[in-house]
Amino acid sequence: MPATLGALLMLWVVIELVDTEVEHLQGAKFTIKVFVGVALVAVIRKILITSLKSDAR
């Protein structure tokens, strides 16, 4: 279960980054909110995986 959830969160991050890059290439301004979102997802992923692994023991 933790591996699947982690993979889904990472897929979400990659989709967001690709979407932002496409918008940037089309002339949109590059925003810092993408980096904040990626950092937030990384922290959530780490917390969820750590808490799920400690429950499984």
Radius of gyration: 14 Å
Helical residues, percent = over 70%
Distance between the termini: 14 Å
- Number of self-contained structural domains: 1
Care to count the β-strands?
0
SSE order, one letter for each helix or strand: HH
Structural class of the secondary elements? mainly alpha
Approximately what portion of the residues adopt beta-strand conformation?
Answer: under 5%
Mean pLDDT: 78
The general outline is elongated
> Any low-confidence stretches, pLDDT <50, length ≥5?
none
Helix tally equals 2
Offer a few descriptive terms.
2 helices
Describe the structure.
- There is one protein chain.
- With 57 residues, the chain is mainly alpha-helical.
- The chain has one domain.
- The protein has 2 helices and no strands.
- It has helices spanning 2-25, 33-56.
- Helix 1 (2-25) runs antiparallel to helix 2.
- The radius of gyration is 14 Å and the shape is elongated.
- The two termini are 14 Å apart.
- The model has no long low-confidence stretch (mean pLDDT 78).
